[in-house]
Amino acid sequence: MLKGKQKRYLRAEAHHLNPIFQVGKGGVNENMIKQISEALEARELIKINILQNCEEDRNTVADKLSKGAKAELVQVIGNTIVLYKESVENKKITLPK
Hints:
The protein is 37% helix and 21% strand. By secondary structure, it is an alpha+beta fold. A 4-stranded mixed β-sheet has the order 1-2-4-3, sandwiched between helices. It is globular, with a radius of gyration of 13 Å. The two termini are 12 Å apart.
């Protein structure tokens, strides 16, 4: 579980990132979760965009993605979700204590 200080740090780190996934009309599926897990292993911190035509509530989408990918939900802001998961092989981010 992330502490407030760590979430603030990750939000600042994520600020300049571009979303690399989009959740649209189809919603969240297994294939998307698998790809997001792989991207998290490579990058640790990613942004996901929720499109206007997505039929699910953004918080539901964020919940499904974070649980499915076993990642920490850092932030849901507007239609953007920020996820973090510590990488096993590509550790880049050092969180403050």
